[in-house]
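Q: Here's a chain of 211 amino acids. Please give me its 3D structure as tokens.
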Amino acid sequence: MALATEMPQDQHDAFDATQVTLPHLPNELWLQILEQVDDIYFLWGTVRLVSKDYKAFVDRVFVASFLPDISISLSLPRRDPKTGHLRYAQALPQSEMIFQCRRSIINSSDIFIETSATLPSGETMQQLNESGALSKQRLDEAQGWMWFGRQRGKGVNIASSKSVQWDEGSKAWTWTVRWEDLVNRYCGAKRASKQVQRGPRRDISVPLRLR
């Protein structure tokens, strides 16, 4: 059973991970404990900051358990979201393309993610690429929505410069990115989203009436 580790945002902000003294346990036992924590934001933004050892523990957990579950949806509207002007003449069978870690190609610094070779509608990426409907420029400019596992609703918009490449072998679009940068952007967007949800702090004052 996953541990309940969701921490309120105000406690996250006030929490000083460097002041935590954790019990001395065998490394493998700590890894097993951390693998049960389902709050990615807590692991990355709190536990990972405790010490170099815990940074190494958390990084190992991410590489083994979380990175293979990354999904990034690139939104592909035909019109410019800001001006409404038609930007891409050719329509696509769907308004997004999803990149996932479909192959276990993760080294010490990069993660390799890619689209599927065939869409649910039956069109192939090769057909869309050759027709010009889905170009590298269109994908590079697209906004991304990132989530882990099946929790798409808990994902966030990520600002990420990218350079996708066509892979002739897999007949799919691929993207190699530094995974620490990607997780940092995810957690930064999560933090900003939670701050917006909380809204500005309001001072509550009660008028004093003198008789």
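Q: Can you summarize the key feature?
A: The first helix runs from residue 9 to 14.
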